[in-house]
Amino acid sequence: MSLWPELELVLPEVSKPARYIGGEGGMVEPEHHPSRVAWLLAYPDTYEIGLPNQGLQILYEILNERDDAVAERAYAPWVDMEAEMRAAGLPLFSVDTHRRAGEFDVLAFNLSAELVYTNLLNCIDLAGAPVRADQRADDDLLIGAGGHCTYNPEPLADFVDFFVLGDGEEVVSEINAAVSDWKRAGKRSRQSVLRALAAVEGVYVPSLYDVVYDGPALVSITPRFADVPAVVEKRTVADLAAWPYPKRQLVPLTEVVHDRLNVEVFRGCTRGCRFCQAGMITRPVRERPAEQVRTMVADGLARSGYDEVALTSLSTADFSGITEVVSATMDCGAGEVSVSLPSLRVDAFTVGLAAQIQRARRTGLTFAPEAGSWRMRQVINKLIDERDLYGAVESAFSQGWRRMKLYFLTGLPTETDVDTLAIGELARNCVELGRAHTKNPSVTVSLGGFVPKPFTPFQWFGQNTVAELQRKIFLLRDDIKRNRGVQMKWHDPKASLVEGIASRGDRRIGRVIEEVWRKGGTFQEWSEHFDYDRWTQAMDRHGLSVDWYVHRHRTEDEVLPWDQLSAGLHKDFLWQDWRDALNEVGLEDCRWTPCYDCGACTGYSIEHIVASAVPPAGGSQGTGQVPTGYQPPRAVEVHLSGVGERASS
Amino acid sequence: MNPNQAPRTRIRLRYSKAGRIRFTSHRDVARIWERSLRRTGLPVAQTEGFSPRAKLHFGLALATGYESEAEYLDVDFKCADVAAPDVLDALVSVLPDGIAATGGSVLLPGAMSLQQAVTSCDWDIELIDVTADDLAEWVDRVRGAATIVITRERKGQQITDDLAPQIRALEVGESTSRGVRLLATLGTQPRAARPSELLTVFEPQYRPVLIQRTRQWIEQDGARLEPLMVGAAPAQHTPVGVQ
Lengths: 649, 243
What we know:
The structure holds two protein chains of two kinds.
Chain A: H1 4-10, E1 37-43, H2 47-50, H3 54-65, E2 69-75, H4 79-88, E3 106-110, H5 117-127, E4 142-146, E5 162-164, H6 171-184, H7 190-198, E6 203-204, E7 209-214, E8 217-223, E9 232-233, E10 261-264, E11 266-267, H8 277-281, E12 286-287, H9 290-304, E13 308-312, H10 322-332, E14 338-340, H11 351-357, E15 366-370, H12 374-379, H13 386-398, E16 403-410, H14 417-435, E17 442-449, H15 466-480, E18 486-490, H16 493-503, H17 509-518, H18 532-541, H19 546-551, E19 565-566, H20 571-582
Parallel strand pairs in A: 1-2, 1-3, 3-4, 4-5, 9-19, 10-13, 13-14, 15-16, 16-17, 17-18
Antiparallel strand pairs in A: 5-6, 7-8, 11-12
Helix pairs in contact in A: 5-17, 6-7, 9-10, 10-11, 11-13, 13-14, 14-15, 15-16, 17-18
Chain B: E1 9-17, H1 26-40, E2 56-58, E3 67-77, H2 84-92, E4 99-106, H3 114-117, E5 120-128, H4 132-144, E6 149-154, E7 157-162, E8 167-175, E9 179-187, H5 195-198, E10 207-220, E11 223-225
Parallel strand pairs in B: 3-10
Antiparallel strand pairs in B: 1-3, 1-4, 2-3, 5-9, 5-10, 6-7, 8-9, 10-11
């Protein structure tokens, strides 16, 4: 039954009502049937943020292609809509057929950021299910979650029935089979479906594990039954070519972020940046065949009408033959299609690539050196040389760009004020390079506070305090504020602290999340709704120490809240990499150099799929070689060797 | 050849907007048209410069949430031999549910823009929690008022307008399952009067459930013309779908 007749009375009262109407190009209005498992795929943030999520769209298509499943989508209603819904007694609903959440079997969330956790609770509540998993009846909605944040699911363990680790393309059908059996049997025993789900590789059912503490310390997380795995392994799709999804990317009727055709060109990254969780948990590198990329671009443009394509991946310029692929992409649209590469390595951004990209329209350029000093970049294993950055910036200015953004982290291990201030020096030098090409070059420094993440070498590092991050931010701000052409933006250090609580928190943090939600703390990733005091007060009230959870360095023998999970990476590899970081020792990119056995390939009998045996041309490339003929634009100290970067948008 | 001197065709299209897509904004609709026209593969002219865009000229904005049977836009094509029926045919399979192109005509060079030319609009407003008799009494009061002062905010300043001369026609329409229809013709020059303003001029303030623009008019030499007829090229370019 559609809720539309009731919704259309409410929509005139709320901001941006098009968030709730669905109707996107590519939308499916599936036929529900008792023999089909009904999935409500939810993104716990606004429609504008959630709609473009590629993971959710891929699962939406795969499930709707199955005979035994249907999938629709839901997004967190904005606060004004939530108030209207609660006043009118309207539950969470799908945007596809405006069906109430309670008519589905599974409510599955994509989790990409810690600050949305309270929204997840709010969505479960709006769906009409008990928020705590142990209070759900046999036939209540099954609550699932996937996405990068599930590599530490413990803070949400009390609320989510099952978590999925890794790529979803294959495992979603196995989960569907388990839920289908339960549904056919009349949903009589919730326990039976949870046990069946726990038997699916890549699925973690937290209620089937006992957690033991000794004071503040975590002692163990162990399965309560013999058939429940002691360690849950992530899922990895061996070959991206077998999964050319989304085939029909959703084209929204209203403006969303990343409102363009997005084609994933590869998954995984082995540049080995030590702060980067995505680069650690998505190994190995799996490139999509260039021909398939071209087909997906051409088909996608024809059916969507978009005039912009983003080629997506981590560090996209690492794709074998990227310049040719960009060139072919631009040719698809007869000169009216622009290409953006949201994640760009500075040491692969060549004049040739810059020239291709700007043929139709200059999209924004963001480079991510991540750290200002060479020493700091050795620590984080992002060994791009100043020359690489200057070369990329020079290429961009020479091809007509006038402004660019540089992304940096502060609060990194061993960071001193010399490292922080080096960021200002890099930015100033970039502006100077621009003056040769344009009268008013502009460089924006975007500074984020570093939050250590599970399954990275920095998972043992004690995060900087709010005061320390704030001090470093102001130090840099004061240093560059007199420099014409350099602007600075930064992430709120208090938000970084709350991310830190959830990022490495254990199951006890669930009480804090629940309290913040009960007191109205939704949309915490939106600065106008973020309430720092609510979080710290909830920590205090539950006797949990921010210092212990966030700022404390972990020891090698400590049990971590995610030790019962595996991203393939050997824990001793991560520990050794952490020691190497402190010793400022780099590690090369294994897609072009011999395997050092981190575990991500060997553990699952899979391999890199990379068309080119050598790194892309240009820059020092983490190969230990400076290519012949490479001319640094400025006289800077020559640094050899090293590994590259995860450039991010 | 200088693209500015290239042969051009300007086609005026009429379209409807109904159903759930009515909750998209004017800006959203502009983007929908850009994407839809690109999908047709028709040779739409582009702006020059740093960030080329399709040359589309929209008429009066329709408030988010309103339906319409009579929206218009002018589209420039970069060649001389584009025919309105071909454009309408090409649009059938690319426009989203709820938006349909219902007419078109080739404009003569120099035709006035829609925003300047349109002088009034007909509105069909469905109100709930009201009887036809009460509404008739309300309509009489509105029609009998010599002046109707409304206050609105513009760039942070409070501005007062007289709505009375803008109300060209007002009557009670038929009853519906939910309420009663109010039919209004409101002027659009120099500024378009809004149905929402009309509904707030006198107590009680009735609640609309659906507001639909049914016609737009261009008054010219004492006659009211449908925008497809104004500035349309004669002979071989007979307007298509004129009401």
